[in-house]
């Protein structure tokens, strides 16, 4: 059997600092409190005086520097006090009367439950029609959140699973008083950070529950290439193995490890063809039924386990048996990996129970698949698995598969919120079935909107079920939908330089790619009222369209909250918004609201390859939003990776040092009008040239004169943007330093975003509206009249025209307070859902900006 050294070695330091421990007790009641920080405390109780110092699935690194705290104790009471909380305890078994923690004005009384009312995530969305109940995270509107860890699985010192002593209590109080990012930082310190993902996972994935043949699958991959739609990852669902021809005496074909030779007569050749196309390959695995006698590898696994094969009894799946798990990985899975399988889609759906209490098979599968995947570092660069969420701590095993959602607008509407709140439990890499999995209706609009969400999601994986009517190939949709889906799939690959940098930020800075609005605005009540809106990186606000287009405006609509500042829409840079208020955003089918605040830099791959894969780009376009100073440090993996060191060494530390990455600082000086790029350090190698372009989003001032000493510069003004193109520029590699080198582009001092042309934008909206021609005249008169703005806003509100049209017009009218005749401060929004017939005025709601 192959060595299992990878599988039982992982970083951990679970024993707490003894200087941070307060413990005591007698008789049949013993307690231990561990002050991890001044805001994070562990509480434990046992009847026998024993406490747990082994790593749990959640708590892996309990050793912190001892914080400042004070203890007040009597014979029957204990108080622990820091600057942030006051714990009171009666020295008896924990109860709501005997253990409490006051944090600010909020008081927590022990109840044995986890609490975090801002939500976390859920194990799966299987069958979800829309919203599902979420497990709590560690963020809350109250001043505290609670994570009960009493029933989680443990790991022994040798890396194998272990169980807890029954009856003991083990939990954590997060006393962060709404400082959400501080709470998450300490959550990661305690539980372990999100790992760095390889670049290729950030591109487009293809999967479908369909009985492909090898030729059909390869032709599909080639069709994507002919379409100019790049992919990085190909998932082959369960029909890769024998399903329908399994003899009934062995049970169903749900679990299987023998290739279906009717569909895949040459598995090695098939997998090699995918590898030749620069695709990473995973197979689906439902492991619950074990290894049955008809399987090709049954004799080999039986031999490894000394299993009697004479009666063809199955080798049962048993995640609590170390010998079975070793055979599962080092005989069964390794044989398939040697054929060319690079990683696995673990599709565990059979519950949380096993032979041992608190040992969840999903946890065992996720943990050991991730660690074992290090042996495939040559193919996948970094450890990875693809599976469902198992609970607090599951963020250490990306990537998550969220399950089989129904193809409905309700399913789409919940996914942005579901993805964002997962960050509240540190889970940053969800992969959804983009387009939905089953049920629902065929809808070009719904599929396009889902793909747009996927483009601005952690992972974009197209997926659907076996129905012949339900598949996600863009060319199977109508022309407009086909074109838009293709555009966004290409854009996803163009975003990889940005996404990879966010991947590093997520791991080393405790900043998940997607964050709820309240993470950055914890004291703004409005930030808690827009659950489908989120930050995508530090500067982009995404508000996906999750409902059908209006039949009048031909646009979808979403209510968004804009924090204070000024923003421009990356997809419609003619619109610039003043923040500090709610706005109703309207976009046609080709656009999704992605707002960038002043002082934003986003690097894009200028020309992603039409072939598959995700190579580092040789030409980069920087999206620059002027108006404030900006900085972005582009982070890339080294061009020549040391796979042994960075793909899983034998020392157990599977995370590369931050110094291993190539970095290019990019800075914009607003006052001077100078953009500085570089120097790149630690990674250029022999290829020290790269083409750069700069796209000023929302700025078309024709006085801009780009100057780069020594280089020929071209400039183009189109679509509300100014693009400045450079030729090949030396990358100025500095292997061990960050000062000196680089180059500067002078664009012009104190550049500002364009002022919205209200009449032009309003005319566009009204011109496209599908309504009576004569009915448009009084609407247009509102925008051409010389009356006061407030009077004209009231006239628009009173007109007997479609409510969605009023909102769309109000958006462009009130967007930019600098615009001549702007309605900012007078905007009136109509609740479209509440409107019925002519009773429009009854549904008016006003948001007045002071």
TrEMBL record:
Coiled coil: none annotated. GO terms for molecular function: alpha-1,4-glucosidase activity. Signal peptide: none annotated. Residues 637-660 are annotated as: Disordered. GO terms for biological process: carbohydrate metabolic process; N-glycan processing. It holds the Pfam family Glyco_hydro_31_2nd. Its EC number is 3.2.1.20. The keyword Isomerase does not apply. It catalyses: Hydrolysis of terminal, non-reducing (1->4)-linked alpha-D-glucose residues with release of alpha-D-glucose. The keyword Hydrolase applies. Residues 511-602 form the Glycosyl hydrolase family 31 C-terminal domain. Keywords: Glycosidase, Hydrolase. InterPro entries: GH, Glyco_hydro_31_C, Glyco_hydro_31_TIM, Glyco_hydro_b. Residues 195-502 form the Glycoside hydrolase family 31 TIM barrel domain. Belongs to the glycosyl hydrolase 31 family. This is alpha-glucosidase.
């Amino acid at each position: 059997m192959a060595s299992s050294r990878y599988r039982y070695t992982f970083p951990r330091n679970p024993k707490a600092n003894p200087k941070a421990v307060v413990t005591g007790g007698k008789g049949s009641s013993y307690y231990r409190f561990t002050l991890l920080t001044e805001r994070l405390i562990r509480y434990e109780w046992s009847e026998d005086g024993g406490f747990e110092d082994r790593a749990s699935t959640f708590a892996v690194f309990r050793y912190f520097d001892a914080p400042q705290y004070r203890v007040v104790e009597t014979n029957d009471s204990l108080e622990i006090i820091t600057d942030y909380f006051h714990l009171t305890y009666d020295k008896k078994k924990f109860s709501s009367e005997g253990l409490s923690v006051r944090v600010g004005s909020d008081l927590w009384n022990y109840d044995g439950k986890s609490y975090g009312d801002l939500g976390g995530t859920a194990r799966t969305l299987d069958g979800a029609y829309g919203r599902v109940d979420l497990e709590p995270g560690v963020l809350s509107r109250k001043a505290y959140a609670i994570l009960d860890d009493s029933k989680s699985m443990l790991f022994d010192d040798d890396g194998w699973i272990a169980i807890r002593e029954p009856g003991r209590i083990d939990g954590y109080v997060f006393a962060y008083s709404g400082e959400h990012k501080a709470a998450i930082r300490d959550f990661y310190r305690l539980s372990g950070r999100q790992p760095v993902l390889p670049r290729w996972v950030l591109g487009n994935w293809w999967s479908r529950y369909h009985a492909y043949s090898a030729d059909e699958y390869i032709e599909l991959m080639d069709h994507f290439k002919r379409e100019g739609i790049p992919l990085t990852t190909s998932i082959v669902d369960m029909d890769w193995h024998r399903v329908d021809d399994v003899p009934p005496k062995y049970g169903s074909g749900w679990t299987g490890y023998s290739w279906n030779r009717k569909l895949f007569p040459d598995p090695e050749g098939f997998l090699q063809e995918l590898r030749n196309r620069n695709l990473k390959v995973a197979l689906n695995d439902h492991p619950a039924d074990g290894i049955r006698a008809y399987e090709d590898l049954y004799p080999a696994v039986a031999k490894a386990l000394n299993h009697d094969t004479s009666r063809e009894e199955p080798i049962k799946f048993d995640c609590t048996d170390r010998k079975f798990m070793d055979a599962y990985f080092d005989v069964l899975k390794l044989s398939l990996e040697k054929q060319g399988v690079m990683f696995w889609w673990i599709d565990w759906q059979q519950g949380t129970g096993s032979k041992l209490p608190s040992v969840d098979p999903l946890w065992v599968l996720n943990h050991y698949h991730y660690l074992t995947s290090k042996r495939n570092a040559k193919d996948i660069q970094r450890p990875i698995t693809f599976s469902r969420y198992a609970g607090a701590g599951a963020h250490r095993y990306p990537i998550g598969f969220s399950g089989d959602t129904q193809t409905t607008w309700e399913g789409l509407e919940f996914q942005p919120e579901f993805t964002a709140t997962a960050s509240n439990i540190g889970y940053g890499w969800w992969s959804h079935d983009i387009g939905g999995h089953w049920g629902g209706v065929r809808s070009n609009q719904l599929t396009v909107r889902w793909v747009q969400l996927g483009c601005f999601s952690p992972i974009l994986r197209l997926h659907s079920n076996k129905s012949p009517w339900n598949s996600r190939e863009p060319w199977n949709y109508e022309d407009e939908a086909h074109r838009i889906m293709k555009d966004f799939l290409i854009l996803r690959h163009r975003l990889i330089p940005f996404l990879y940098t966010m991947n590093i930020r997520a791991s080393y800075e405790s900043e998940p790619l997607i964050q709820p609005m309240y993470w950055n605005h914890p004291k703004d009540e409005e930030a808690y009222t827009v659950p489908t809106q989120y930050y995508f990186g530090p500067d982009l606000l995404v508000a996906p369209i999750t409902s059908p287009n209006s039949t009048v405006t031909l646009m979808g609509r979403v209510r968004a909250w804009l924090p204070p500042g000024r923003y421009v829409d990356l997809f419609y840079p003619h619109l610039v918004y003043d923040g500090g208020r709610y706005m109703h955003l309207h976009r046609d089918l080709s656009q999704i609201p992605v707002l960038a605040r002043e002082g934003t830099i986003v690097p894009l791959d200028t020309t992603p390859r039409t072939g598959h894969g995700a190579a580092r780009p040789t030409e980069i376009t920087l999206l620059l939003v002027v108006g404030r100073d900006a900085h972005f440090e582009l982070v890339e993996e080294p061009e020549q990776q040391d796979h042994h060191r960075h793909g899983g060494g034998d020392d157990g530390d599977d995370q590369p040092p931050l110094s291993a990455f190539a970095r290019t600082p990019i800075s914009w000086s607003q006052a001077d009008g100078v953009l500085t790029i570089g120097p790149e350090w630690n990674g250029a190698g022999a290829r020290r040239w790269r083409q750069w372009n700069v796209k000023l989003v929302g700025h078309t001032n024709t006085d801009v004169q780009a100057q780069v000493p020594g280089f020929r510069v071209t400039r183009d003004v189109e679509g509300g943007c100014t693009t400045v193109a450079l030729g090949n520029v030396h990358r100025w590699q500095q292997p061990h330093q960050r000062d000196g080198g680089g180059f500067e582009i002078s664009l012009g001092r104190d550049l500002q975003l364009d002022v919205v042309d209200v009449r032009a934008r309003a005319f566009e909206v009204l011109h496209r509206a599908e309504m009576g021609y004569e009915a448009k005249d009084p609407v247009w008169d509102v925008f051409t009249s010389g009356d006061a703005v407030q009077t004209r806003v009231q006239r628009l509100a009173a007109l007997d025209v479609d409510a969605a049209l009023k909102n769309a017009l109000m958006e462009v009218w009130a967007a930019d307070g600098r615009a001549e005749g702007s309605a900012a401060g007078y905007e009136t929004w109509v609740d479209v859902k509440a409107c019925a017939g002519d009773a429009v005025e009854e549904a008016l709601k006003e948001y007045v900006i002071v």
